[in-house]
Amino acid sequence: MQSQTSILLNRANLSSLPSDVMRPAYDVENVQTGIVHIGVGGFHRAHEAMYVDRLMAKTGDLSWGICGVGLRENDRAMKKVFDEQDNLYTLVEKHNDGARSASVIGAMTGFLMAPDDPQAVIEKMAEPEVRIVSLTITEGGYNFDASTGEFITTNPDVIHDIENPKQPKLVFGYLVAALKKRKESNIKPFTVMSCDNIQHNGHVLKKMLLAYIELFDQSFATWVNENVSFPNSMVDRITPATTSEDIVTLEAHGVKDSWPVVCEPFDQWVIEDDFCNTKPSFDVVGAQFVNDVAPYEKLKLRMLNAGHSVLGLVGSVAGLSTIHESVEAVQLKQLLSVFMEKEVMPTLDKVEGIDVFDYRDTLLSRFSNPFIKDTLARICLESSAKLPVFLLPTVRDNLAAGRDVSISALVVACWAYYSDKHASQDGKPLEINDVLADKLHKAAKENEVDALSFLKLDEVFGELAKNEVFAGCYHSHLERIYQNEPVLLLSEELAK
Ligand code: CS2
């Protein structure tokens, strides 16, 4: 990309952008809202919004634009950018060979901050043209107890929302208010589409929403159960946090965008074909509609996401900082490869058209893209919500079948060390960004008195501490890490 005068990104300036920056191939002024999306972060902008952009360009159907919703105060920064840039943003794909391609996405039609005007959000969701409400609210947003899978009824926000149905705080309150409004006005319900990294994400969302409604209105719960669909989906695209360097590089290339999104070239979206209202033809632009998403979800969560956690936690303790740096360390690359083959593959179901060894090799190549600079800090963020979804189900399956769990145990041991020391083995400070940060730290601090103290955090690990095989393996790794045996050496030994 060569340098030139930069143009502020907005509708009026679209035609003045550098010629190699792709522009919406449709009239952005005419895009209508057909989707309301809760949780507009980098991932949504690089994935669903990009698919909508492709769909509009390819079919000319402009009825599937997306109105973003922010539920939390920290979504305000995104709203400001949307307001300043007429809802436009740049998507920059970074290829393994250093090439970059930039496109302006025109799929967003607006952004509502729910805390400012909850009613506006409810009304928007109740509009008949809105046929989908989609979500990326992260694993934690589903409000389930990781060890039991049940809805947490004691959450003060849940109690608040039941008492204040017109001013909800959580997603469940908004869905209920809008679905009720549609039912009362005889408008077909919208499909509720989860785009989070949770196995059976649609079913989990349905279970949580119904559990919430059952707390106060059994007959409405029955209606939702019978009339609203919650398709499961598998979503995939590595999207690191945007850095100031990304903004400066794009500006040097001629586009002044205060919050572009950067990602890898790869994207995948497999959606269960279960829509209670009209569905967009995402299949004409690369997504797949299937009857059963489960094997795809399992493959992706257990290979990619857990693979990330292996590199994230072991790599952090080893003093590394990014995914590509970690996969470049031969011991870790080998560890990851053996983890996938020995601990994950035996737990997977056959996925039509996918060879798991090819899938693994593609992952290793995606992880090795040096331009993505995906930080281990991002990967380790909210590990207490991620590991129960990404890694622990694999551990449980392997224990039940009498198979090896030693690499998984190393990952958990590294997490315990990380949570105790807040530092790598060579003393580099590490941050814990996790809703359970204090509990994790407190439990890990006790490791010296009770070696299984961290593992006994049952809201994360359930009964795992009571499993002698896993606990034994974990304990022996932990001791060696505390004795300062480099985790890279330990990794090498385990990957033999
Ligand atoms: C990552 C995911 O958050 C994580 O730990 O594994 O964000 C991952 O990059 C995406 O799921 C890729 O599709």
Automatic annotation (TrEMBL):
Q: Which parts of the sequence belong to the Mannitol dehydrogenase N-terminal domain? A: 34-282
Locate the Mannitol dehydrogenase C-terminal domain: which residues? 292-481
Query: Which residue windows are coiled coil?
Result: none
- Superkingdom to which the source organism belongs: Bacteria
* GO terms for biological process, alphabetical: mannitol metabolic process
Which keywords appear in this protein's UniProt record, sorted alphabetically?
NAD, Oxidoreductase
- Keyword rRNA processing recorded: no
The molecular function GO annotations come to: oxidoreductase activity, acting on the CH-OH group of donors, NAD or NADP as acceptor
Q: Would you identify the family this protein belongs to, as annotated?
A: Belongs to the mannitol dehydrogenase family. UxuB subfamily.
Indicate what this protein is called per its UniProt record. Mannitol dehydrogenase family protein
Species name for this entry? Alteromonas portus
